[in-house]
């Protein structure tokens, strides 16, 4: 914020405020906006002080005047803060004004103290630049001299701002003099210079000439009294003048925020402003014309003015806010609805222009005004169905002249969808930029219904005129606001929308009154009155699902590919959060989205990741552990979950991101309210991994078969390496503690550790999930126990197991039977006594090693054969077909067939198959696993393709556990649905 | 009883006329109140031209002799329309009835059309006039050209006949239409028509042929949208049920067709209830056990949207290994089969009415349970076994004995304790290792030989030089 200014006008204005009639309760708050709007008035009365600032503007003489005034107004609005809270100092300010009139170099001003350090710093910097220039002069380096000069000029602005003055620092003048002298000298004795140097020299000469013109008298003064410039060059900060404004300056961007912050009736202030401002414009004449005699305003005048304003876009010194205000004013005086519409389009795009950079967001109040304008546009379109908005037809020059009673179609250029999308992304951006823990964030979130209502109306309009493709796009925007909301949140939003409408009504009424008052005071009512025909209240169906379904069917019918894909993802997400795993899964698989996700844009990929995460959570809640693991494992395999879900930036140790990348990533971030709870996600993933991995580890003590979850194994190794195990703190610790317990078959402890996690309260059906989890833990504990200790038992009774694991008899029977059938457990039931009899078929350590050796040998032979083939180009004759080729099928099928066909029920016939009925701790899967490990070992020899092949095989080979198929299905199977 | 009835789901994918047999069956089984079924039939008939039949049903439904006026009117209308259509197609029909002329037709359709169009008028006119002694009217007709219009007229005629329930003729016309037609869109429709007619005429062999032809068309044709193709496949599968459960080789056929990837996908997407038929077919078919695994995978995937006792039975047995549950489900299965129009088909042998599929299904299912049970047990009490198999003790013992004797079961009966003892057979680990390494030996030998021999030859050659 700027400190107290010495603006002469301010004094008068602020004193004027006191006498101004105003609604009493608003007095204090309104002071600021009033001031702001009055600032320029004051300026107008001060032509004297302005005159010197005229020299300042570097812009072309054309826009000079106008620019000036804008600067002036900026200044005015900057200073308003003072006026707002500096009531006590008002008298002082007045004094100051008096003093500043005659005394230019008032050093004891009140603002001085506050900014001392900054000012010093600036001056310091300037000094150092001047020093640099001196050095450059010494070595006759014109290139760096030119650079320094530019730097100096730029710096001048800063200094001026800090110093609150337009008086040029003497140091600067001195530097100019110095430069001039040096230039003259150089010109005189034309030394030889390098090409670049001479180029810089010439450029410099011209620039200096131009630049110095502005300061002629000061330079003159300096030449006359060099000594006065010698001394206090550090604080040339006095003159009560305007400052030069860069168009990108902060003040401009801050401005609207201030308006939002300090006034409840920002809208009015926004609307008031143009009125006052108009008076100050250099094209006063026209405005007067507009104001004085409304009936005389013609279409041509408005059109001309519009063109003028539109043409000013992007020109230096054109205030963005001003443009909006001017245009808004024009909408009032528009003569025909079509013209009003046209101008409104310009207003909206001007409003989007208010924020110049990609990173920042549009100010909230501008956004809201923009929403209002959109609604106004829709009103017009509804009211006058003969007006057609499109981008394809080039409208006539005089198209908008056709009045309201014109019957044919009137074309107006504009793109509602583009506006709407922009509106949406601006909304998204504000949420991204706002700190989620502040009230601002919540307030901003409450604006969502505002957007939804516009979107809904635009969609209705587009559907009405039959532009269904565009309607689909709009529908997608709506879907993207709804899809992540569970029913509860959706209901809350619905309620909010209804409430805001009620309260909004009151607010509107008030605002309307004042509005009226303002209008009465200051100007004519709008020429084209548009009643509010478009509903201002969003309508929501009862459940989010219904809304989604409605929008979806529209999108699926008419949307383009990307729209459809995104909508589909949103749909899946929504199904997943409503606990409909099967539906979500089927949709995902049928859509083939997985195949093409790599080719999609990044934001869609993020959406896809979010969908997978949510699907995993959903599967977990439904008790489908393997499926959940399948969904989540990929997210966690890289360790960059945050990045994948766009929920925060993760610092990577291995490669630094360029600032550019970082900026891009930041722009992709999800707003906080859309986040998926990472702790819950991690817990889900780790618990799933635990339930799968613990029995898997127990089953393979000899041969370390490929871990199902590498991430989990790694974590486990890390935690096992710890010397002291403290009580668990985070999610990971908890799961590791549970794993240790589960490893010993202690299901109670495992469950109690897991259930002590905080995150469970985030789940809707917590009890149910925990119950499921308990059961699964018991089951896996039973399996682990059997794997680990079966070799120590000859027989185990069913009753004992049921008491040990607190499971029903039939349940234990089922689990154990499954293990027997899948040959994970080499045992059989003794039915009369109902106990498990173990067969001692476990291989010894020696035998296990022998198997490994055999595998490795066969790999060796195979690689030899390949080498031979590669060398000779032919195949070995008489060599049996490669094991890899046929072993899989025959043994797999053989086994399966045998299970059912031969009622011998034993694996007798299968001896010839490579891994057929091998004893040992693992079944078939193990056999293949080991193959794979073998080939992995010798992979170096011949490339990765075989390895990959092995891996693929491996996956299918290891599906010995029933139901495994589905898990992989999520990523592999059933991809070929029609 | 009607809870597992699929009639309504099936009917949606069938032709109007094909639904009648289902309704007849439902009526027989008395799953729904008779009046309701009759009502349904009547509504079904509304869309057809089988007015006589409709009248009959109406009479029996309302117990009156009166027939609503609109039905009578409709009958008239139908007759009139039939006449018109027949007249339109007459020239061609007459032509085709003449075997001598038909021989002139060639496989080339364009040629046929041309021939009919050109030469016909002059020569045929006279020929037919004299040889058949036709009336003047018909002669007049023949003076007209026989062209595309007539061929299309024949299609319309056939369609109308079909709607009237005269399937044999309809099929006949459609065959000929297909032979002559150049309109591919309509020939496909004709094929569907033939299929329906043949099914309704119970000519299973020809129907099967037609089915395969249609399948090829569907698979090879470029459909405008995948959805369309899917729909066609679903239709085809539904219609094929008639054939597969009646044709003698149908049980293999259904497995072959339904397990094709595309068709399996179609089932999973849009016609989950077909899983019942697939499951039954797999259970009943002894030679196709290998499909069981795949079937169970599919059943599990679709668990959430379709289940009936048959699929649940398989799930109990092969996913949960819950034998008691399987036993219970099996009981339900029997009812389901009896109430299913396709599965519960009766055959009359002598005085008994049997449902062959039910018996086979139960027999096989029992076998499944038994096999699985034996696989995970070492010792089983025969009385328990008998109970599980729904047999008496000595029956069960005899049954087991037979199995053992035919060496299907590697077990012994301990008669004293009344148990069955399974013999466990494990492969020796040593043997297995040796087996694995044996192959290596031979392979290495071969490799060495292959490398050494050429080298030796080269050496010899070098020495010889």
TrEMBL record, chain A:
Pfam (any one): eIF-3c_N
Job description of the protein: Component of the eukaryotic translation initiation factor 3 (eIF-3) complex, which is required for several steps in the initiation of protein synthesis. The eIF-3 complex associates with the 40S ribosome and facilitates the recruitment of eIF-1, eIF-1A, eIF-2:GTP:methionyl-tRNAi and eIF-5 to form the 43S pre-initiation complex (43S PIC). The eIF-3 complex stimulates mRNA recruitment to the 43S PIC and scanning of the mRNA for AUG recognition.
Compositional bias per record (Polar residues), positions renumbered to this chain: 48-59
GO molecular function per UniProt: RNA binding; translation initiation factor activity; translation initiation factor binding
PROSITE patterns attached to this UniProt entry: PCI
Positions with biased composition (Basic and acidic residues): 512-522
UniProt biased composition (Gly residues): 906-928
Protein name in the entry: PCI domain-containing protein
SMART domains: PINT
Keywords, in A-Z order: Cytoplasm, Initiation factor, Phosphoprotein, Protein biosynthesis
Automatic annotation (TrEMBL), chain B:
PROSITE patterns tied to this protein: PCI (PS50250)
Presence of keyword Cytoplasm: yes
GO cellular component, one term: eukaryotic translation initiation factor 3 complex
Domain PCI: 243-427
Keywords: Cytoplasm, Initiation factor, Protein biosynthesis
Keyword Transcription carried by entry: no
Classification via Pfam families: eIF3_N, PCI
Molecular function (Gene Ontology), one example: translation initiation factor activity
Record HAMAP family: eIF3e (MF_03004)
PANTHER family documented for this protein: EUKARYOTIC TRANSLATION INITIATION FACTOR 3 SUBUNIT E
Protein name per the record: PCI domain-containing protein
Organism this protein belongs to: Eragrostis curvula (weeping love grass)
């Amino acid at each position: 914020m700027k400190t107290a200014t010495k603006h002469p006008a301010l004094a008068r204005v602020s004193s004027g405020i006191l006498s101004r009639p105003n609604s009493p309760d608003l007095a204090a708050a309104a002071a600021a906006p009033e001031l702001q709007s009055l600032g320029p008035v004051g300026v107008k009365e001060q032509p004297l002080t302005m005159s010197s600032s005229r020299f300042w503007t570097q812009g072309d003489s054309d826009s000079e005047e106008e620019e000036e005034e804008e600067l002036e107004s900026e200044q005015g609005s900057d200073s308003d803060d003072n006026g707002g809270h500096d009531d006590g100092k008002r008298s002082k300010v007045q004094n100051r004004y008096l003093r500043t009139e005659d005394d230019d170099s008032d050093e004891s001003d009140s603002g001085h103290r506050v900014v001392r350090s900054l000012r010093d710093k600036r001056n310091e910097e300037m000094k150092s630049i001047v020093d640099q220039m001196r050095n450059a002069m010494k070595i006759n380096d014109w290139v760096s001299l030119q650079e320094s000069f530019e730097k100096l000029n730029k710096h001048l602005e800063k200094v001026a701002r800090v110093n609150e003055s337009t008086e040029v620092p003497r140091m600067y003048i001195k530097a100019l003099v110095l430069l001039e002298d040096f230039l003259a000298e150089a010109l005189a004795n034309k030394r030889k210079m390098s090409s670049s140097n001479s180029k810089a020299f010439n450029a410099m000469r011209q620039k200096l000439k131009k630049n110095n013109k502005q300061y002629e008298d000061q330079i003159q003064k300096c030449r006359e009294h060099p000594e006065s410039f010698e001394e206090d060059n550090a604080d040339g900060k006095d003159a009560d003048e305007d400052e030069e404004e860069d168009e990108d300056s902060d003040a401009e961007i801050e401005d609207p925020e201030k308006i939002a912050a300090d006034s409840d009736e920002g809208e009015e202030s926004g609307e008031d402003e143009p009125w006052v401002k108009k008076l100050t414009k250099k094209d006063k004449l026209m405005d007067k014309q507009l104001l004085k005699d409304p009936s005389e305003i013609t279409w041509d005048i408005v059109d001309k003015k519009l063109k003028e304003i539109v043409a000013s876009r992007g020109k230096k010194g054109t205030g963005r806010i001003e443009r909006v205000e001017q245009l808004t004013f024009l909408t009032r005086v528009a003569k025909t609805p079509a013209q009003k519409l046209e101008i409104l389009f310009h207003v909206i795009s001007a409003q989007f222009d208010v924020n110049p950079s990609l990173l920042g967001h549009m100010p909230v109040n501008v956004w809201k005004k923009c929403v209002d304008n959109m609604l106004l546009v829709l009103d017009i379109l509804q009211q006058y169905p003969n007006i057609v908005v499109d981008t394809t037809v080039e409208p006539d020059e005089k198209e908008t002249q056709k009045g309201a009673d014109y019957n044919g179609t009137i074309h107006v250029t504009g793109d509602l969808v583009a506006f709407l999308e922009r509106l949406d992304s601006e909304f998204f951006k504000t949420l991204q930029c706002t700190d989620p823990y502040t009230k601002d964030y919540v307030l901003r979130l409450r604006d969502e219904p505002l957007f939804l209502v516009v979107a809904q109306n635009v969609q209705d309009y587009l559907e009405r005129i039959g532009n269904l493709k565009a309607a689909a796009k709009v529908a997608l925007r709506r879907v993207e606001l709804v899809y992540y909301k569970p029913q509860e949140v959706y209901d809350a939003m619905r309620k909010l929308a209804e409430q805001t409408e009620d309260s909004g009504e009151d607010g509107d009424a008030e605002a309307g009154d004042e509005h009226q008052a303002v209008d009465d005071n200051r100007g004519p009512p709008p020429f084209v009155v548009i009643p509010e025909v478009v509903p201002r209240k969003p309508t929501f169906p009862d459940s989010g699902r219904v809304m989604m379904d409605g929008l979806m069917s529209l999108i699926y019918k008419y949307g383009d590919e990307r729209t459809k894909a995104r909508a589909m993802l949103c749909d899946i997400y929504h199904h997943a959060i409503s606990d409909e795993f099967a539906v979500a899964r089927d949709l995902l698989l049928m859509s083939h989205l997985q195949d093409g996700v790599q080719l999609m844009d990044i934001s869609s990929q993020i959406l896809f990741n979010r969908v997978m995460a949510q699907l995993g959570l959903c599967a977990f809640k439904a008790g489908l552990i393997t499926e959940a693991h399948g969904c989540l494992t990929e997210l966690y395999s890289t360790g960059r979950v945050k990045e994948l879900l766009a929920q925060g930036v993760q610092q990577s140790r291995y490669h630094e991101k360029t600032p550019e990348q970082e900026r891009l990533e930041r722009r992709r971030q999800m707003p906080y309210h859309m986040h998926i709870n990472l702790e819950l996600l991690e817990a889900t993933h780790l618990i799933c991994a635990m339930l799968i991995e613990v029995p898997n580890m127990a089953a393979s003590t000899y041969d370390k078969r490929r871990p199902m979850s590498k991430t989990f194994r790694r974590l486990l190794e890390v935690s096992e390496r710890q010397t002291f195990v403290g009580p668990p703190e985070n999610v990971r610790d908890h799961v590791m503690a549970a794993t240790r317990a589960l490893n010993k078959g202690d299901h109670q402890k495992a469950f109690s550790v897991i259930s002590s996690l905080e995150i469970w309260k985030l789940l809707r059906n917590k009890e149910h999930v925990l119950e499921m989890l308990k059961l699964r833990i018991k089951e896996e504990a039973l399996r682990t126990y059997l794997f680990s200790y079966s070799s120590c038992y000859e027989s185990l009774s069913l009753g004992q197991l049921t008491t040990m694991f607190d499971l029903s008899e039939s349940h234990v029977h089922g689990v154990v039977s499954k293990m027997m059938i899948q040959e994970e457990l080499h045992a059989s039931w003794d039915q009369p006594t109902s106990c498990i009899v173990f067969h001692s078929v476990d291989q010894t350590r020696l035998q296990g090693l022998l198997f490994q050796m055999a595998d490795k040998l066969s790999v060796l032979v195979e690689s030899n054969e390949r080498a031979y083939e590669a060398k000779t180009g032919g195949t070995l004759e008489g060599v049996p077909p490669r094991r890899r080729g046929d072993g899989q099928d025959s043994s797999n099928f053989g086994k399966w067939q045998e299970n059912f066909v031969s009622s011998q029920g034993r694996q007798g016939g299968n001896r010839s198959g490579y891994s057929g009925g091998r004893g040992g701790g693992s079944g078939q899967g193990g056999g293949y696993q080991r193959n794979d490990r073998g080939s992995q070992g010798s992979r170096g020899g011949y490339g990765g393709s075989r390895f990959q092949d092995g891996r693929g095989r491996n996956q299918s080979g290891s599906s010995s556990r029933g139901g495994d198929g589905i898990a992989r299905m999520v990523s592999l199977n059933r991809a070929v649905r029609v | 009883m009607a809870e597992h009835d699929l009639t309504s789901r099936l009917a949606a994918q069938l032709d109007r006329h094909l639904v009648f047999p289902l309704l007849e069956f439902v009526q027989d089984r008395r799953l729904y109140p008779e009046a309701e079924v009759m009502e349904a039939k009547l509504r079904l008939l509304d869309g057809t031209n089988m007015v006589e039949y409709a009248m009959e049903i109406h009479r029996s439904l309302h117990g009156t002799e009166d027939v609503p006026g609109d039905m009578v009117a409709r009958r008239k209308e139908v007759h009139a329309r039939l006449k018109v259509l027949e007249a339109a197609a007459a020239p061609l029909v007459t032509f085709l009835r003449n075997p001598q002329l038909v021989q002139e037709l060639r496989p080339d359709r364009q040629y046929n059309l041309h021939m009919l169009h050109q030469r016909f008028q002059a020569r045929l006119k006279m020929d037919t006039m004299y040889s058949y002694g036709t009336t003047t009217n018909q002669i007049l007709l023949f003076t007209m050209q026989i062209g595309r219009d007539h061929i299309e007229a024949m299609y319309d005629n056939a369609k109308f006949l079909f709607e009237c329930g005269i399937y044999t003729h309809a099929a006949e016309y459609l065959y000929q239409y297909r032979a002559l037609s150049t309109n591919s869109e309509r020939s496909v429709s004709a094929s569907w028509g033939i299929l329906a007619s043949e099914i309704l005429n119970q000519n299973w062999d020809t129907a099967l042929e037609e089915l395969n032809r249609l399948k090829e068309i569907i698979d090879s044709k470029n459909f405008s949208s995948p959805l369309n193709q899917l729909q066609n496949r679903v239709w085809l599968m539904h219609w094929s049920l008639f054939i597969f459960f009646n044709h003698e080789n149908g049980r293999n056929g259904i497995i072959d067709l339904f397990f094709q990837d595309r068709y399996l996908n179609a089932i999973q997407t849009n016609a989950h209830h077909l899983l019942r038929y697939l499951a039954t077919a797999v259970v009943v078919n002894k030679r196709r056990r290998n499909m069981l695994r795949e079937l169970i995978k599919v059943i599990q995937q679709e668990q959430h949207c379709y289940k009936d006792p048959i699929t649940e039975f398989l799930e109990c047995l092969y996913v949960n290994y819950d034998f008691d549950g399987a036993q219970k489900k099996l009981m339900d299965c029997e009812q389901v089969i009896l109430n299913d129009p396709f599965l519960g088909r009766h055959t009359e042998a002598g005085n008994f009415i049997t449902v062959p599929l039910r018996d086979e299904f139960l027999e096989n299912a029992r076998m499944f349970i038994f096999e699985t049970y034996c696989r995970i047990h070492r010792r089983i009490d025969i009385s328990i076994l008998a109970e599980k198999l729904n047999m008496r003790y000595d029956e069960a013992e005899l049954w087991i004995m037979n199995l053992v004797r035919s060496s299907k079961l590697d077990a012994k009966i301990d008669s004293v304790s009344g148990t069955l003892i399974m013999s466990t057979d494990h492969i020796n680990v040593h043997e297995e290792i040796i087996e694995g390494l044996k192959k290596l030996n031979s392979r290495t030998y071969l490799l060495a030989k292959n490398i050494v021999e050429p080298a030796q030859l080269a050496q010899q050659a070098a020495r010889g030089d």
